[in-house]
Specification:
With about 280 residues, the chain is mostly helical. The chain contains ten helices and no strands. It is globular, with a radius of gyration of 20 Å. The chain starts with a helix and ends with a helix.
Length: about 280
């Protein structure tokens, strides 16, 4: 139980860092793409202050007040500040403590299940990356290679080191089948309609899930993701909260299905979807 509690506390700290990743990584990628386009066109880019996962220090989005260490304590600072900036009293988004709490609970589950072992830490990393991908894709419809590809390789390495109960061959074919299956669906849909139904990031994320759970888990995972996506999509439509064009990113539902597979197991997911 002590191991689980320690991982839960670690999860709160990692959750605080994930808030930084979720907000800054898409901004960093957009800046990188603009710089690359400017280079191709032979245009010079003006010098700009450093912006990465470490700098500048966190600030209030409303008044740019630089946060002190005591304002960055996971969960506790939000409660003490009563959800408001200490400087300007602007409301702090509930997402920040929610991400910290969810990450802490996921790490706590991994610790309870596996202890503070290499296996437990591997699954903690799996949870952290999926949570970041979920919110980045929901906000921006991006699934960055910086997260999906390390997740895929980590699944294969975890299988090779026997940190997961998946044979390396099953993990390898899970990655291959995960990528190719959605790639084929993408092209079939595009040829039939002339439209793109999903992005390449979805292929890579599904490949990563195949690496972590093996090819046998791909069917229940994709079915679970589809069920969750359909329920959320219908809810958004009836509440008139669909974004322009009616597009709902699929990555968050793949991530949710992956977390469900971790907690419940693919067999339980098959029973849920009626197979």
């Amino acid at each position: 139980m002590m191991d689980a509690s320690l991982l839960g506390l670690l999860g709160l700290l990692i959750g605080s860092f994930l808030n930084v990743v979720i907000y800054r990584l898409p901004v960093m990628l957009e800046a990188q793409w603009k710089a690359e386009c400017a280079d191709l066109q032979g245009q010079s880019q003006p010098e700009s202050p450093p912006f990465n996962l470490m700098a500048p220090r966190s600030r209030c989005q409303a008044c740019s007040h630089q946060l002190g260490w005591y304002e960055n304590i996971p969960l506790l600072s939000y409660l003490v500040l009563r959800g408001k900036c200490h400087h300007c009293k602007a409301a702090i988004s509930l997402r920040y403590p929610a991400v910290e709490l969810i990450t802490g609970l996921l790490f706590l589950w991994c610790g309870w299940q596996y202890g503070a072992s290499a296996t437990g830490l591997a699954w903690c990393g799996f949870c952290a990356v999926l949570l970041a991908l979920t919110l980045i894709d929901w906000d921006t419809t991006l699934l960055p290679d910086d997260l999906t590809l390390p997740l895929l390789w980590a699944g294969l390495i975890a299988a090779a080191l026997q940190l997961t109960p998946i044979q390396l061959t099953d993990a390898l074919w899970g990655a291959v089948a995960g990528y190719l299956s959605l790639w084929l669906v993408y092209w079939a849909f595009k040829l039939a309609t002339g439209k793109e139904g999903m992005g390449y990031g979805d292929f890579k994320l599904f490949a990563a899930l195949g690496a972590w759970f093996g090819w046998q888990a791909l069917v229940p995972i994709i079915l679970m993701a589809s069920v969750i996506g359909a329920v959320v999509g219908v809810g958004l439509k009836f509440s008139k909260n669909l974004r322009e064009g009616g597009y709902v990113p699929f990555g968050p539902f793949l991530s949710m299905a992956g977390l469900t597979a971790m907690v419940a197991g693919p067999t339980a997911m098959l029973r849920f979807v009626g197979l």
